Task: structure prediction
Amino acid sequence: MPLTPTEKIWMDGELVDWDQAKIHVLTHSLHYGLGVFEGIRAYATSQGPAVFRLTDHIARLFSGAHILGMKMPFSPEEMVEAVKTVVRVNGLDACYIRPIAYLGYGEMGLNPMLCSVNVSVACWPWGAYLGDEGIANGVRLKVSSWARHDSRAMPTAAKSTGMYINSSLAKVEAVMAGYDEAVMLTTDGQVSEGTGENIFVVRHGRILTPPASSVGALEGITSDSVRTIAGDLGYEVAEAHLRRTDLYMADEAWLTGTAAEVVPVTSVDDRIVGSGKPGPITKAIQEQFFQAVRGQIDRYKDWVEHVS
Result:
């Protein structure tokens, strides 16, 4: 989905014009991929734009930086305010927000310890990541030939920039084969996640999702929100190891993520999932989620942080 430029980007404490938000070609993270980022959404509400679970996203950004040994030059509170400032100054009612911390210019080589840490926040209008059609009617998945990272090889608990080469390869493979999205398996064949989404299935009325800690999946904030919503709706939610065939045999399935939001899955490897249409549990959770992100449900109002 192409970028729509906005007016200002926050870079290391200053607002700069979109076209002037530049870095040097010898920026360390460009060469070695060591950095952390977040994907966050702001939604239009009756009280103006509000950022969904902003403080939780910034906390995960700092956790990822800590895992990678990056010392953040700003506090979490300063980063929360930076995000609000960027949304406010660009006059957007709804947008996608990208904070990123990366190793800057001045040092080269595999030892990153002497590098400065730079931080930026940008935002822009962005619709449904997997399309409005996907939100409404579901998407087709393909199990990727690329395995998800093993946590012994990469720190999968961090939303790290370089790790997404793995996701990009899987995404391209799926799209080139005519599918909407890929499913990543672990090296021993367990379902991990999509290229940028967590996975849920329904079997016999129970909602199941892979345990992030043992399958290399990121602990998703949207995933956490959906678990809470599902529990409040009276559904049983449990973590379970899933094989690819468990996806084929699911009564319902969906993907969750900040970019993707909540997207029904209608087939995996050309096997129809359930009825081949978004199921009743999927639709019930979708409805609650899209109300929650817009501050329309009192019990979830703490999830939205108003910009003004």
In short: The two ends are 28 Å apart (CA to CA).
